[in-house]
Amino acid sequence: MSSETAAATSVSTHILDTSVGRPAEGVALTLSVRSGSEGAWTAHGAGKTDADGRCKDLPALPDGTTHVRLDFAVEDYFVSSKHCTHHKAIQQAEEQQDAPRVRDSGAFFPEVAITFAVKPGEHYHVPLLLNPFGYSVYRGS
Q1: CA 127, CA 53: separation in Å to the nearest integer?
Q2: pTM, two decimal places
Q3: CA distances from 97 to 19, 44, 53, 93 (A)
Q4: Backbone angle region of 12, left / alpha / beta, with phi > 0 → left and psi within -120 to 50 → alpha
Q5: Total structural domains in the chain?
Q6: Residue limits of the Transthyretin/hydroxyisourate hydrolase domain (predicted)?
Q7: Where residue 1 falls among pLDDT bands split at 50, 70, 90?
Q8: pLDDT tens sequence across 83-106
Q9: At residue 46, what are phi and psi to the nearest 5 degrees?
Q10: Which range of residues forms the domain containing residue 73?
Q11: Phi, psi of 80 (to 5 degrees)
Q12: How many Å apart are CA 50 and CA 53, to the nearest integer?
């Protein structure tokens, strides 16, 4: 298969705020790539999640990419006055556990970095399930 006909390696993502059961809108993220496990990271794209919590316009990965890192800036999402329901969710969660009552920032995890390996020609959809005190990810479809 020539490089002109080979399918591009691509990445997409979305975020679901599990504390309120809704998509996380307006979360800034960056996409970085590297070739080889010892290679240097290179910024390759950036975006923000839309009203559906999705970031669909990340660029195709360069040839030779073996690893991808998605960096999500979630702190602004949790402290934004636009998302006031999250403040209530945080308060309720804190009351139900032995979490510190005072934190240095508005989010326990101010950023989330996800690193994963890729193979040429495949699409990788990486959802982030987020709440004020934790997160999980998986390879979606």
Answers
A1: 10
A2: 0.81
A3: 15, 40, 28, 7
A4: beta
A5: 1
A6: 11-140
A7: very low
A8: 555 555 555 555 655 555 544 556
A9: -155, 160
A10: 10-135
A11: -65, 135
A12: 5
CA nearest neighbour of 17 among 6, 9, 25? 25
- Do 44 and 69 form a contact (C-beta atoms < 8 A)? no
Calpha distance 83→5 (Å, rounded): 44
Could you tell me how many helices (H) and strands (E) the chain has, helices first? 2, 9
CATH number, domain with residue 97: 2.60.40.180
Q: What is the dihedral of CA 111, 38, 118, 21, to 10 degrees?
A: -10
What's the token pair of residue 88?
A: 């209530």
pLDDT at 95 (0 to 100): 62
In a domain, 70, yes or no: yes
- Residue 5 placed within a domain: no
Residues in the chain: 141
Q: Which of 48, 105, 40, 52 is nearest to 73 (CA)?
A: 48
Does residue 88 fall inside a structural domain? Answer: yes
How many CB atoms neighbour CB 60 within 10 A? 14
Please report, rounded to a whole number, the percentage of residues in the chain having pLDDT higher than 70.
77
